[in-house]
Write a structure and sequence with these properties.
The chain has about 90 residues and is of the alpha+beta class. The chain has one domain. The strands form 2 sheets. The chain has a 3-stranded antiparallel sheet with strand order 2-3-4. The protein has a two-stranded antiparallel sheet with strand order 1-5. A hairpin with a 4-residue loop joins β3 and β4. α2 crosses α3 and α3 packs across α4. The longest helix has 17 residues. It starts with a helix and ends with a strand. The mean pLDDT is about 95.
Length: about 90
Amino acid sequence: METTLSRRITVPDHVLCRQIEGEMVILDLDEEKYFGLDDVGTAMWQALTETGSGSQALDRLLEEYAVDRATLAADLVRLLERLHELSLLTLHED
């Protein structure tokens, strides 16, 4: 889990995102598909993309949500790995 969170994160050029009514809509231009995130997923997306780091995103989210670190880390890794599988985020080895 820590390995995933320690990797640098970027949004590929073929991905556009917009926040609409508190939720994030992510468009994959290559696949012509869109994905939606609820308010918590939106907060995670913003923390991941603004910091460019899973561990920094985790620290930021811990300031916002009253949840234990292990639970939030597991949820964040699950979302991060799913977004990576869908080619909506790139994880770099650095």
